[in-house]
Each structure stands twice: as structure tokens, then as C-alpha cells.
Amino acid sequence: MTNKINFKLLKPFGSTLAKAELPLKLVSEFLKDLKQIREDKEKSKRHDFGNHLVGAVTAEYLITPELMLKWKQQFFNAIISKYVISHYPHKTVKNIKILSAWFIISVSGDQNPQHTHTNFGKDEDKQPHLSCVGFLQIPKIMEENNSNEKNHHKINGKTQFSEGSESFFNNSIFTIDPQVKDWFLFPANLLHSVFPFYSENPKDERISFSFNTRVEFEDGKAN
């Protein structure tokens, strides 16, 4: 991919997040992949990833590996490398390994409780360093208020990151309003959650994807 990839680093609290805009072709290909998985009963069984995750959501499916690899090479690697080097400027990234990558389909009332993507104490060499979330489809109903939602604190379908404790000079919460093509990279141990949205239309779906990645440096050591 020869087009320049733009992104920015955000630091709402101690941890740093990166934000980028997903290529339209990526969004289209990911949605096509998900559609094919959902329409094929055998494939949907093979790709079912819900039992490995904490979300109380309608469905979670593994992204087809070949497609994930394609966009890892053409888009994600460049941003992940820049993110890592911004923290470790004297090191050289040797390898970026995707440990798992999956779609998340949420309908009215679904939610994802506060969690991280780490599991310390088990297979430390397989623990992810970074995770992400990218938004592929957002129902229009999410732009409206929930009946019990306060105007000064709108959370309808939003994703929230949290870290540490709040003080006069330190934020502890960072809430994002999901938009199609938005993509956020963040430390795998950063707490995050997703609030539910509500709709009477069963076809209203919030579709996103996520993956966990581990970084290796030229000295052979992981971060």
C-alpha cells in the first residue's frame, strides 16, 4: 500500500492511544468477510469466538486469517511500529504478531463490561502488548439519546477507557463516540468497556473488530 497512513497519538491519562482512519476498502472487505462467515453455518461454527471473550454481545467471530494478514501488512504494521518506537525510540521492531483477531456484533441491549485483554499468570510469553478496536458499522439510533440518558452524560453505545484515579490535574476516563472508519490502538492491559444502545429495530447492529498483538524487538526480547 503506497498511500501515506496518517494517525495521531492521544494521551488522555497515563497510557497512550493511537487513532487512525481505516481505509474504505478495508471496511468493505471486513464487512464482506463477516457476511460470508455469518451466511455459512459451518464457517460460522469454526469462526465462533464468543466463548473466549467477556462481552455480553450477540456474536463474535474470528476474522479470516488471510484477510487479517493482508491488512496487517498494508495498514496496521506501520502504525503499530510507530506507536512502539514512540515509547522505545532506541529499539528496532523485529516482528509484530497478531495473536487473535475477531468481529463483534452488538444489537440493542448488548454490552461489554469493563475488562482488559490480558490474562497475567498464564502463558506469559503469549500475553498481548497491544489491542485495538475498529468500527465498521454504526446504527443511526446510536446518535439519539436513550430515554434515561442525561444530556450532559451521553453514553449510548459509546466505548469508554479508564485508568487510575481522577484528580484536579488527571483524567481517569476517556469516552469515545464510535464513528465508521475510526480505529484506536491501546495497551492490552488498559481497562475499557462498551455501553449498550437501545433500538426496536432488530436489524440495528453495531459492528466492530478487535485484535491482540505482541511485539518483538531486534534484540530478541519482547516489550
Structure commentary:
With 223 residues, the chain is α+β, with helices and mostly antiparallel strands. It has helices at 24-39, 41-47, 65-87; strands at 7-10, 17-21, 59-62, 93-106, 112-115, 130-137, 159-162, 173-176, 182-187, 191-194, 206-217. Strand 1 and strand 2 (17-21) form a beta hairpin. The model has no long low-confidence stretch (mean pLDDT 89).
SSE topology sketch:
Layout: E1 7-10, E2 17-21, H1 24-39, H2 41-47, E3 59-62, H3 65-87, E4 93-106, E5 112-115, E6 130-137, E7 159-162, E8 173-176, E9 182-187, E10 191-194, E11 206-217
In brief, what are we looking at here?
The radius of gyration is 18 Å and the shape is globular. It has helices at 24-39, 41-47, 65-87, and strands at 7-10, 17-21, 59-62, 93-106, 112-115, 130-137, 159-162, 173-176, 182-187, 191-194, 206-217. The protein has 223 residues and is of the alpha+beta class.
